[in-house]
């Protein structure tokens, strides 16, 4: 899924002065915080084995634990974490202990005052799953009981050192009424299953691999399973996907994705499935996407259930990626885990990188070399678009933090884009610097050194460095510094000397918490920057647009096409020799570093890159720069044409270029998101969200109208009525087809007939939900009938009804009054199940985060809607509420009246006396 050591690591010693200054300043700022990286000390006891017995009932579950402990240090007292549980009894080596004499207990801890060097501690507790709406710890979901223990949920069941560096082997016994809970699952291998008296039954599970408490899981319920046995690593392995009985037909793709993940991890990294079985369980009540509990992954149904009639291509893609992600955690997170929660990116950034690579390989499997390259480029574009839209914004806001923060108030608030997606980009930079073989050597050494232990980000970096005999000390700064660096580039061509000089400057000003640190010194980062130079004219055998051979001054070998530059200074110059003609540079190819590039490209330069760049990612990025420049210009001059004739000609050539895959063309003609454009504007001026929305809409209208005949041709070619199959190529065709239909609807009212026909005749959810969305936004009369039909068709499909809610909440083409009425009606709808996180995200989050035109009304109605629901949700589920709270963290970037109205809404939430710690931290940092 997604504290502490006394001795400094070698890297920490190398920068003691800098690091100590940062920690001192942050500690001074976080006076109310008791979670500081600098406070880390090891837990003073080993917990060698943990035995648990759960007597399960929704109304009252009792938990009996036996902890086999041994003292590590001189500490006499043992402190165990616990909250929202009832303590029944405590004993040591079968002798009952006396409250307030042998131990004391408060709302969050059980302290055992004096313990021997070793012994067996037994604790009996009780909890009430049926009233646990936080979905942390043991909770009810429908007819089932399930757990979520990351980050600090285990303490809601029993007292324990609930921290990731306490590793123990677990034996778990589950007892329950067999009729009520016929399926009883926990981590590891099944040891025994049998019936007991009075209609009960029990199962016993053993996990032979030491793990921290956050990886514990149990499931009790009325579930059906899809099962397959595979031969893997010379052994038979049982794979099981548990879902509601009526959902079994929708579980096959998750099973196939699990098998593909197992095969990929063995092939790519020689990492085997290490248990006798691997289980996946799906529930609709889940705050996260999924959880990697050892051998028993618990998923949100959204990332397990996939069938053509109920899931879109994006859903299929996400199921594959998330199944892969959680399986890959078996080694990068479970076998080697985090020493403390500050190291969260150690497992999450690394595993996101691994699932991105897995998905890329899956998309490219079986394709020609050219088609595979296109598929990989589309995946890279998806990932970078996500990073730029959400993580770059996070880096520029009040929650900005390094991928390894040095302080936090509430750990649940640090499951962020920075930890995950930026963390993945940092891991990717290791491979860029070391090459795939070098990265593999580093991974092998990492597992050799640390299997079965809890380690730090520095330990991972040390394995990479030592395996390749390189110094990566400076690279470690990526873990300590927040913000998105800007790399400013100047290029100069000397025709007489046949040299091209690139002058680079990196800048990463203070952001977020760093703004409170007046004396903070941010040091240069080690940035791997891939570059290419394109010939601007024919020169000898080199044709216009070809990649030039690149000789770096002082080196004898030429790079073919792309040259990796190792950019390590605040300012640095690179001289490329034997350049026969003036080039156009292609910078940060494949997005080799998560930075903003500033180069003074002319409109003609960007047009040239659009036509010729051989790096598919940068060709797409040139289109994004063209769109961005045109939209921002149109905001300043709304009456002018959005695009020039030259730009439209080039875009037209690309739209008709059948050598470019449909998936890639769909990406090329997708405008930058409102959120990404908002970031860029707010760097230089106050943001008017309505002006941005209007300018972006005018840009889309221009593309729709100018290329209307091309959209018609594409739609007719791609709307071929072929039976649905999920492959990357087929999904790309549907993406371009539905983009064409959307653009036709924008340009021509007569398209309503095509939209209705697609809705009625399609065999898949991708095309049906696309038609419904287009109708809702463009053809309200038809939409009324289609919405009613859609609901009737899928009333029993919870995930599909989520889409029904989301399509209506995202409608930006009606009046403010109309969307207010729609939201009011939907909130009262019988299908709006308020506690369910998926339903909350479908309606409330979609409106607040994906409908900027209506959310940013000048009367503040959208902000009032946000405040009401942040407070309402917070009463039951603080984790979900805190994520909604972040919708307003960039309020300072906005022009009036938005800024004052947003501030007022934030203050209204802040004044609530019952606010959870999760939300209070977000609101407090937003208000400063």
UniProtKB/TrEMBL annotation:
Its cofactor is Zn(2+). Keywords: Aminopeptidase, Hydrolase, Metal-binding, Metalloprotease, Protease, Zinc. One of its GO terms (molecular function) is metallopeptidase activity. Residues 253-475 form the Peptidase M1 membrane alanine aminopeptidase domain. Residues 132-215 form the Aminopeptidase N-like N-terminal domain. It holds the Pfam family DUF3458. It catalyses: Release of an N-terminal amino acid, Xaa-|-Yaa- from a peptide, amide or arylamide. Xaa is preferably Ala, but may be most amino acids including Pro (slow action). When a terminal hydrophobic residue is followed by a prolyl residue, the two may be released as an intact Xaa-Pro dipeptide. Residues 483-598 form the Peptidase M1 alanyl aminopeptidase Ig-like fold domain. The keyword Cell division does not apply. Its EC number is 3.4.11.2. InterPro entries: Aminopeptidase_N-like_N (IPR045357), Aminopeptidase_N-like_N_sf (IPR042097), PepN_Ig-like_sf (IPR038438), Peptidase_M1 (IPR001930), Peptidase_M1_dom (IPR014782), Peptidase_M1_pepN (IPR012779), Peptidase_M1_pepN_C (IPR024601), Peptidase_M1_pepN_C_sf (IPR037144). One of its GO terms (biological process) is proteolysis. Residues 603-927 form the Peptidase M1 alanyl aminopeptidase C-terminal domain. It comes from the Bacteria. Belongs to the peptidase M1 family. This is Aminopeptidase N. It comes from Ephemeroptericola cinctiostellae. The lineage of its organism: Bacteria, Pseudomonadati, Pseudomonadota, Betaproteobacteria, Burkholderiales. The gene is pepN_2.
């Amino acid at each position: 899924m997604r504290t502490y050591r006394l001795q400094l690591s070698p890297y920490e010693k190398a920068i003691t002065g800098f690091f100590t200054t940062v920690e001192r300043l942050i500690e001074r700022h976080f006076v109310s915080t008791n979670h500081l990286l600098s406070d880390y000390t090891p837990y003073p006891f080993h917990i060698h084995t943990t035995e648990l017995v759960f007597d399960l009932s929704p109304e009252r579950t009792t938990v009996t634990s036996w902890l086999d402990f041994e003292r590590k240090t001189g500490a006499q007292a043992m402190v165990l974490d616990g909250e929202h549980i009832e303590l029944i009894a405590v004993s040591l080596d079968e002798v009952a202990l006396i409250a307030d004499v042998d131990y004391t207990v408060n709302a969050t801890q059980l302290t055992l005052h004096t313990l021997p060097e070793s012994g067996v501690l037994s604790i009996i507790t009780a909890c009430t799953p049926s009233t646990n709406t936080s979905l942390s710890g043991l909770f009810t979901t429908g007819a089932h009981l399930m757990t979520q223990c990351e980050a600090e949920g285990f303490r809601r069941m029993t007292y324990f050192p609930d921290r990731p560096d306490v590793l123990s082997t677990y034996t778990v016994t589950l007892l329950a009424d067999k009729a009520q809970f016929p399926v009883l699952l926990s981590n590891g291998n099944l040891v025994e299953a049998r019936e007991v008296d009075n209609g009960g039954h029990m199962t016993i599970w053993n996990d032979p691999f030491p793990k921290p408490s956050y990886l514990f899981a149990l499931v009790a319920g009325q579930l059906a399973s899809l099962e397959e046995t595979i031969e893997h690593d010379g052994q038979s392995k049982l794979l099981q996907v548990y879902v509601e009985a009526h959902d079994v037909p929708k579980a096959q793709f998750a099973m196939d994705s699990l098998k593909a993940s197992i095969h990929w991890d063995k092939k790519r990294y020689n990492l085997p499935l290490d248990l006798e079985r691997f289980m996946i369980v799906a529930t609709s009540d889940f705050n996260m996407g999924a959880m990697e509990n050892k051998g028993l992954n618990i998923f949100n149904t959204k990332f397990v259930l996939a069938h053509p009639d109920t899931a879109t291509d994006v859903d299929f893609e996400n199921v594959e990626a998330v199944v892969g992600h959680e399986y890959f955690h078996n080694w990068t997170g479970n076998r080697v885990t985090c020493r403390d929660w500050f190291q969260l990116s150690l497992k999450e950034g690394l595993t996101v990188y691994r699932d991105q690579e897995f998905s890329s390989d899956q998309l490219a499997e079986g394709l020609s070399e050219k088609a595979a390259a296109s598929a990989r480029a589309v995946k890279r574009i998806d990932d970078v678009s996500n990073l730029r839209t959400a993580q770059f914004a996070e880096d520029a806001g009040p929650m900005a933090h390094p991928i390894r923060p040095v302080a936090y108030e509430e750990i649940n608030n640090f499951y962020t884009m920075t930890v995950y997606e930026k963390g993945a980009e940092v891991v990717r930079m290791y491979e860029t610097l070391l090459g795939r073989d070098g990265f593999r050597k580093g991974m092998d050494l990492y597992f050799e050194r640390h299997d079965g232990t809890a380690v730090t980000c520095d330990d991972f970096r040390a394995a990479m460095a030592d395996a390749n005999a390189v110094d990566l000390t400076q690279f470690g700064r990526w873990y300590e510094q927040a913000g998105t660096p800007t790399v400013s580039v100047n290029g100069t061509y000397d025709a007489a000397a046949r040299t091209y000089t690139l002058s680079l400057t990196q800048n990463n000003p203070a952001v977020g918490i760093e703004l409170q640190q007046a004396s903070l010194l941010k040091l240069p980062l080690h940035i791997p920057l891939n570059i290419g130079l394109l010939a601007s004219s024919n020169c000898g055998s080199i044709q216009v647009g070809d990649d030039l051979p690149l000789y770096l001054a002082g080196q004898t070998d030429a790079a073919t096409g792309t040259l990796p530059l190792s950019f390590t200074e605040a300012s640095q110059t690179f001289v490329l020799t034997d350049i026969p003609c003036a080039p156009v540079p292609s910078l940060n190819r494949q997005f080799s570093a998560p930075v903003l590039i500033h180069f003074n490209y002319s409109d003609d330069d960007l047009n040239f890159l659009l036509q010729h760049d051989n790096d598919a990612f940068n060709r797409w990025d040139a289109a994004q720069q063209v769109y961005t420049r045109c939209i921002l210009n149109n905001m300043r001059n709304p009456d002018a044409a959005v695009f020039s004739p030259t730009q439209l000609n080039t875009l037209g050539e690309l739209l008709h270029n059948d050598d470019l895959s449909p998936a890639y063309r769909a990406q090329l003609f997708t405008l930058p998101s409102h959120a990404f454009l908002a970031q860029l504007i707010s760097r230089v001026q106050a943001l008017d969200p309505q002006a941005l929305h209007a300018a972006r809409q005018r840009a889309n209208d221009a593309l729709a109208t100018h290329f209307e005949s091309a959209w018609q041709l594409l739609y007719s070619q791609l709307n071929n009525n072929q039976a649905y199959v999920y492959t990357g190529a087929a999904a790309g065709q549907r993406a371009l087809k539905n983009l064409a239909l959307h653009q036709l609807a924008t340009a021509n009212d007569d398209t309503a007939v095509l939209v209705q026909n697609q809705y009625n005749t399609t065999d898949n959810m991708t095309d049906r939900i696309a038609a419904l969305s287009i109708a809702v936004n463009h053809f309200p009369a038809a939409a009324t009938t289609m919405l009613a039909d859609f609901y009737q068709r899928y009333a029993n499909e919870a995930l599909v009804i989520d889409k029904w809610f989301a399509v209506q909440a995202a409608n930006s083409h009606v009046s403010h009054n109309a969307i207010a009425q729609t939201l009011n009606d939907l909130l009262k709808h019988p299908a709006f199940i308020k506690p369910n996180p998926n339903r909350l995200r479908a309606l409330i989050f979609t409106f607040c985060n994906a409908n900027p035109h209506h959310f940013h009304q000048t009367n503040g109605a959208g902000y009032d809607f946000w405040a009401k629901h942040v407070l309402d949700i917070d009463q039951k589920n603080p984790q979900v509420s805190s994520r909604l709270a972040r919708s307003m963290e960039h309020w300072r970037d906005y022009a009036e009246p938005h800024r004052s109205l947003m501030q007022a809404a934030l203050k209204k939430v802040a004044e609530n006396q019952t606010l959870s710690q999760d939300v209070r931290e977000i609101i407090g940092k937003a208000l400063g």
